[in-house]
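Friendly challenge for the regulars: who can give me the structure tokens for this chain first? No prize, just bragging rights.
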Amino acid sequence: MRRISRITVAGAATASLALALSACGGTSTESGSSDSKGDKGLAIAYDVGGKGDQSFNDAAYAGLEQAKKEFGYETQDVEPTEGETDADKQQRLESLAKQGYNPVVGVGYAYATAVKAAAEKFPDTTFGIVDDSTIEAKNVADLVFSEEEASYLAGVAAAKSTESNVVGFVGGVDIPLIHKFQAGFEQGVKDTNPKATVLSQYLTQTADEGGFSSPDKGKTAAEGQIEKKADVVYAAAGLSGQGVIEAAAANKVWAIGVDSDQYKQEALAKYKDAILTSAMKDVAKAVYNLAKSVEDGTPETGIVRGDLKTGEVSLADSNPKFADDAELQEAIETAKKKIINGGIKVKSS
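First reply, four minutes later:
Bragging rights claimed.
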């Protein structure tokens, strides 16, 4: 049941606050349901790359859409702005909270400072942050994943699929979060095929340099690895990963997608035959589950982790060439079981 205090807060929102949100790039997805009684529900603030990245942010939006459909309430999703500061992010989150949205989710580790500050100012609002586990507050849920586990399986797939014994990894930004993807992938490759070489490259040192939002950078990096005989390339680079997939398709080698099932993404349809699989983390489920917990009156808090055991990280099997390869599937299933039962300890750095 929705809390009465949220209805009160929603009623107090002013036109000036709405204008402030608009200035931050807000886009409304109101349901218009008469059942919501003026109450407001889930709001998300996108990370770099924004809506339409066919990856991380779009997965969060899918969770928002599921919550809106099921609970029949008003939602909001807000775009980032170029060169924004932590103060800009904080203002965005606080504006959403003032308008009565609950929960409010920052999509990406870059929101850590902003979520912590906003949560202190709005203790009756539940906040969520994806990919950060540093915030300890009674009204904050840290939505994190064991990306290294899915990446290990991606490494198994790459090692079983390569003909040149050279595979590539392209990371968007050189940060600990993406190191998890690299570490798991390299370990999976080496455990499966010790003769294989992994070429690893990061596009930028900081997100501000476009590592997660520059398909051209991803394409150039992938082309460089393909020239060095890589015939499977795995990208953990947000929107930049589209360039990696494009390069793989043009050169008739395999790409491995990330976060969402990129074989199914409409914007990547013309490249889908080059997408072997995707190392997925169910951001949509995490965002939806947080919204449901608030709706049920028992908000999630603290670290909420998704991994292979919970089913919130996995490999996509949409490509029939991947799904119908019995030997490959057996190798992946064997590795998955060993990770879950502790037989394989996957590195995170």
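Residues 1-38 have pLDDT under 50 and may be disordered. Residues 176-192 form the longest helix (17 residues). Your move, everyone else.
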